[in-house]
Specification:
Shape: elongated
Number of strands: 8
Radius of gyration: 19 Å
Oligomer: single chain
CATH topology of the largest domain: Nucleoside Triphosphate Pyrophosphohydrolase
CATH class of the largest domain: Alpha Beta
Distance between the termini: 27 Å
Number of domains: 2
Length: about 210
């Protein structure tokens, strides 16, 4: 991409709206001619994104137009696990660190997905205590995406375990707020990690809703 400033331009919302309308139309129309028109709209939305970002059209299509049915945001869950006043972070293959978590898998709930992701990425077993926040990713994280993502931060209680080698992360450690390593801001920012500390220290914490 050239930069992220274009993502604040109205054309992006137009492209996303066109894609959403086209996706629903392709799924629900019974008219073969209308389906053809909706596919043309989807193609136009793809070309708009490709032209403005210089990303190849086929790659945009695979990222932007790979679902069926009514378009809804994706769900990303992140576990906030504390030990002795420090928070658990995992060392990603990108070389940066993040709260353990990821896409909510089919047949998983927010709680079960959070537990699963923490275990898979860090080796620790946890149980979910409470939701800290539901963030609109495009309002909080970069780079911005051309589809909606709801990031759900969940405070977890540590049960047991320890780091287990896996294909996603190379290390898991606990950090104080003033000793955070370089974060993968596509997954969590320093502000989001600080929010988790604030929630942990506040028994009357109110869920943040975007």
């Amino acid at each position: 991409m050239k930069n992220n400033t274009f993502l604040n331009e109205p054309w992006l919302k137009w492209a996303i709206d066109i894609q959403s309308i086209a996706q629903a139309g392709i799924e629900y129309t019974k008219d073969i001619y209308d389906k053809e028109r909706y596919e043309m709209l989807r193609d136009i939305a793809t070309e708009m994104i490709s032209f403005k970002t210089e990303i190849p059209k086929d790659k945009v299509y695979n990222l932007f137009c790979n679902e069926k049915g009514y378009q809804t945001p994706k769900i990303d869950t992140r576990g906030a696990v504390f030990k002795d006043g420090k928070i658990l972070l995992v060392h990603e293959n990108t070389g940066k660190w993040s709260l353990p978590g990821g896409w909510c898998d089919v047949l998983e709930s927010v709680a079960s997905n959070t537990v699963k992701e923490v275990r898979e990425e860090s080796g620790y077993n946890v149980k979910c205590d409470r939701v800290i926040a539901l963030h609109d990713r495009n309002k909080r994280n970069k780079p911005l995406y051309v589809y909606g993502i709801c990031k759900i931060f969940v405070q977890c209680e540590l049960i047991d375990g320890g780091f287990v080698e896996n294909i996603e992360t190379s290390e898991a450690k606990f950090f104080g707020l003033n000793e955070l390593p370089e974060l993968d801001e596509a997954k969590c920012t320093k502000e989001q990690v600080k929010m988790c500390f604030d929630a942990c220290n506040d028994p009357n914490w109110k869920v943040i809703l975007d």
